[in-house]
Amino acid sequence: MAETGLLKTTDTQKKKTREFFQLLLGHGMGKTGIIIIIIFLVMAFFSPLLWTNDPYKSGEAKDILVKPSAEFWLGTDDMGKDVWSQVVYGARVSIMIGFIAAVITVVTGAFVGIVAGFFGGKLEEGLMRIVDFFMMLPILPLMIVLAAVLGPSIWNIVFVISVVSWPTTARVVRSQVLSLKERPFIEAARCIGAPNKRIMFREILPNVVPLLFAQSILMITETIYAESVLSFLGLGDASKISWGQMLHFAFESGAMSNSPWWVIPPILSIVLLIVSFSFLGTAVSDVLTPGYKEKRGY
Amino acid sequence: MNAFSSASPSSPPLLEVRDLKLHFPVESGIVFRRRVGAVRAVDGVSFSMDRGETLGLVGESGCGKSTTARAVAQLLPPTAGDVLLEGASLPSMGRDELLRARRNIQLIFQDPYASLDPRMTAGNIIAEPLIIYRNRGIIELEKRDINRRVEELMERVGLSRHFRNRYPHEFSGGQRQRIGIARALALGPRLILADEPVSALDVSIQAQILNLLSDLQREMGIAFLFIAHDLAVIEYIASRVAVMYLGRIVELADSAALYSRPLHPYTQALLSAAPIPDPDLERSRRRIILSGDVPSPDLERHGCYFYDRCPKRMDICKTRIPELTEVAQRHQVACFLHHDPL
Questions:
Q1: Do A198 and A189 touch, CB atoms closer than 8 A?
Q2: Contact B290, B245 (CB under 8 A)
Q3: CATH assignment at residue A139
Q4: Whose CA, among A2, A19, A296, B199, lies 20 to 30 Å from B20?
Q5: Residue B109 clears pLDDT 60, i.e. is over it
Q6: Rounded (10°) CA dihedral A16, A17, A18, A21
Q7: DSSP, res A192
Q8: Total count of domains within chain A
Q9: Tens digits of per-residue pLDDT, B169-210?
Q10: Are A157 and A230 in contact (CB under 8 A)?
């Protein structure tokens, strides 16, 4: 690095962030993923402006199972509710559940992973056995029991998905911490008297952030998927519209085979959203791989 | 044992290391882990250092140089022996007491790439020790003072203060080592343990860093325990030199005496292995080639540690361990060629 080039002050952090997003948008999968996700986010945030009919309002007898038309863009269901409005509104629930559960999962997993990896010994053993326990929890019976005890609500779904998902993050983070804590800069931190708490959260945590970022994207897709499955099986909150819930009602009313306009939109939405998050995840891990920038000739 | 204690008995030397041992346990067994032995990384090291002096520590890879430094700094708990900083025993200190004492012992690391947190800016890396000691209430500094101190330190080690917001990967190896040096200086230590601080750098950069270190020493009166495997570097910077072999010091002398008249057969072999930048001299001199490799440090030894490879071994060397003994003015050696068993 040339000595003269260093004399100018620049805000490197900002520059790096901008460069990261530039690379991400230059990545084919990254661009596709981001565009689709933004479309769904717009749907979720502005759903009251986008829906053409109240998604909760049942229609009159003549409006039941109507094919797509100018009034009902995607037709209606067996209660005469507008399918387009339900898809728009369902984006809200699916994305909200996805983000909330992903945050809970990643924060808990990161904390447990860092503590276990850093301290090692008996504490690590103990925490990892707890991780194993939660990893093995059967999600469906747990949901059924919770729905029965607490009554169905989307918070049950968030809770159950978080409870069974955080162990994955904890394991991944722990293995990263095991290698990080042997690095010389950790020894250097000890040498200047850094207490354990500071080493864990000021030295190690920033170094696992890229990993946590990738994990959260992964967790969002898993959560959206899990929400759909649970709702489809009737374990969700029947009073809240979500894509899984729509499929559940379509299945129950036997409309799967004769009303494709009711069934295809939620399926397509689930698939598109999950695939676009996977695209984003792949793009992020590509871009974060050292040497990517050079390979692309930037 | 300690031949070079300071002049007045009332003031203890800056650092005194007494029979320091550090053994790493070797465990085996699938179901039941049990201790089957120990790697004797440091096996009975004693030396002392005065204020403001530079003691060089040489030896080949794996002889325990770095481990000695870590045991002195209490980064690794010693198995046995004592480390006294200005007469106070470090291994027996509690956490808070040790934190206060450690302020006076700082380390400079070998690898300027791995020893700086890649996600912290240069300024934050240098400020870190100040922030930690302020948070613990050991030093009193305003936030503004810390910023000013960081800038002073950066300029002192030859870095522009404008670089404070840059990340380690944006610096060259020499510049990174300067950041590491500034971090070590931040708390105003009396002793810096420099663990091969230049061996990862280019030769031209090595000279710059060495000059920086000797300037700092002159100005601030810091003592250096300077670890290296490069004999030329040690000769350049150290006033006294200790030669280590297999976890023990075999010879300890003023650097002029050690380089001109090495007594221990290992020191002689080591010096004869170093190249001389003069082809005629290089061609005409006789090299001492040692047979075999350094033996494994996991055995308990009852004779001289150098017995297996020594070209001048005697019968007594097999059964008695030579202790470091003063054989001339300020010249200690552990070899029965030069002194009788105690």
A1: yes
A2: no
A3: 1.10.3720.10
A4: B199
A5: yes
A6: 120
A7: T
A8: 1
A9: 889 999 999 999 999 999 999 999 999 999 889 888 999 999
A10: yes
Which residues from B are below 8 Å from A204, CB to CB?
Answer: none
Asked if B97 is an interface residue toward chain A (Cβ–Cβ < 8 A), one would say: no
- A294 pLDDT higher than 90: no
Q: Is the pLDDT of residue B6 over 70?
A: no
Chain A residues 206-245 with a CB less than 8 Å from chain B: 206-207, 209
Q: Phi and psi for B44 in degrees, rounded to 5?
A: 95, 65
Which amino acid appears at position B327 of this protein?
Answer: V
The total of other beta-carbon atoms located within 10 Å of residue B239's CB is 14
Residue B210: both structure tokens together:
């060495």
Separation CA B182–CA B157 (nearest Å): 6
- Which residue has 């590509």 as its token pair? A286
Scanning B179-198 for CB atoms below 8 A from A yields 180, 183, 186-187
- Domain hosting A138: range is 2-295
DSSP for B175-221, written as a single string? HHHHHHHHHHHTT--SEEEEESTTTTS-HHHHHHHHHHHHHHHHHH-
| B107-136 residues touching A, CB cutoff 8 A | 107, 109-111, 114-121, 128-129, 132-133, 136
pLDDT at residue B219 above 80?
yes
DSSP bridge partners of B18: B82
3-state SS, residue B89:
strand
Confidence band, pLDDT 50/70/90 cuts, at residue A161: confident
Q: What angle do CA B231, B237, B241 make, to 5 degrees?
A: 60
Query: How many Å apart are CA B175 and CA B154, to the nearest integer?
Result: 10
Spatial contact of A128 and A174, defined as CB atoms under 8 Å apart:
yes
Confidence of residue A61 (pLDDT cuts 50, 70, 90): low
Number of H helices, E strands in chain A: 13, 0
Q: What are phi and psi of B207, to 5 degrees?
A: -60, -40
**pTM here?**
0.82
Provide the token pair at A142: 């747990």
Q: How confident is the model at residue A11 (pLDDT cuts 50, 70, 90)?
A: low
Rounded mean pLDDT of B216-222? 92
